[in-house]
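Kindly review these tokens for lecture notes.

. . .
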Amino acid sequence: MRSRISLSPRYERSETRVGPGSPSWRLSLVAVMALSVLTGCKPVGPDYKRPVYTAPPAYKETGAPSVVPPENPQGGSWTPANPSDGMLRGKWWEIYADPQLNRFEERIATDNQALKQAMENYLAARDQVAAVRSTLFPTLSAGPSFTHQQVSHNRVLGSLNTKTSFNDLVIGGQAGWEPDLWGRIRRNLEAARATAQASAADVANVDLSLQAELAADYFQLRGLDAQIKLLKSTVGDLEHQLDLTQRRLKGGVATAADVEQAETQLETVRAQLVDVSVGRAQFEHAVGTIANYSLPDFSIPFSPLDLPLPKVPTGVPSQLLERRPDVALQERQTAAANARIGVAVAAFYPTISLSGTGGFESTHFGVWIQGPSALWSLGAQASELLFDAGQRHALTDQARAQYEAQAAAYRNTIIQAFQDVEDNLSALRILDQESAVEARAVAAAQRSFNISNQRYKGGATSYLEVLTAETTLLTNQRTFTDLQTRQFAATVQLIRALGGGWDVSQLPK
């Protein structure tokens, strides 16, 4: 059960004189001015303060040669810097100096449907800000009406001498306004604006995710092209080995088992080549889909990965809070949740509304727009909810709990962001070390194969030794190529973890 107490004073008078000279007009003007002053009062509820999070002074993992840590400032202590200092900007993928990748990345902004969906959601949130802002102002409406009426002669108190047919001509307008005395609308506007900014950050986050996914898929494809190049070269070598073994068999030097082993090895590598081609096709489809190409007409030329690994500037950890769009998204949602506390608190205060009507009414066109036909009314109403069985308290507590939950989500996103950066920094450091070791393993396997091959040609050993050495060499060569591909993928993921070329200054105001 709900009880309300309401005050509805109204002033209605039909006079010829309507305007600044009438006493009622002056009284109403004073009341409106007083309420306008009150609407400038501070909104109820807590003002927003960003949840505190202290960033570490430096990243733990900075040992990879492909990482450029910031210089240690004088005095040995880090200070928060501008989000753009020492960081990637704008089109981050251009650090790879790959024109084909640049062309694919450029298409995301104009052609990707997932990004378009996120952008339309942002535009809808921005329109919601305008819709909420409009409630700060009065609503006005106006319009004419014409009615011809015929009333009964036999109505109550009617007589035969009373005119029963007449016109009713009205032209008038209405105005209504709910002054934002307690800040409910302003807090709603804060929430809507923060939600729109969160939606803009989501657009940036989707954009960055698509850019990183396309780059990672592209480098995986080029890594497989490097594998294909290696396997094709190995197939050529094995074909020569098979031909040599067959000739040695005819010369009585080799055995039929040697020929079969050579042919088995050749077909095994050919099968590996087919398998790699399947993976390449899938990555090609992934790139084409993200860049929104027509897949039946889309293909990426054969291009083995032979680029130098770029150096990625990391900046200082304090910049990460400004450069990750997902962190900005959570922070803006936290601001919106804080504003909704004020909306809930405003429900404890009275609701006051002002209304007014004015116009002209007559039964004849000739005197319709004249002083005696004027009509107007002004009114004000205040209402206060006296009993709601604790609903407002529950909604306010709910808003506070939702704010605390969102603040925790914001801090957790920051923690995950730092983990992402550290994970990829360590991956680059370890992959660099592993690549160096694997390069030595490839060199050793190559020397072993060369020795075994010479021994076989000289008749000092069986083909099994050559086969074993060749298998070992191919395995190490493929591992080394895979490590190079993983290094490129790790740089892409590091750039994504650092926020790409984005920062919070790009959020709409």
About this structure: The chain has nine helices and eight strands. The chain has a mean pLDDT of 86. The radius of gyration is 39 Å.
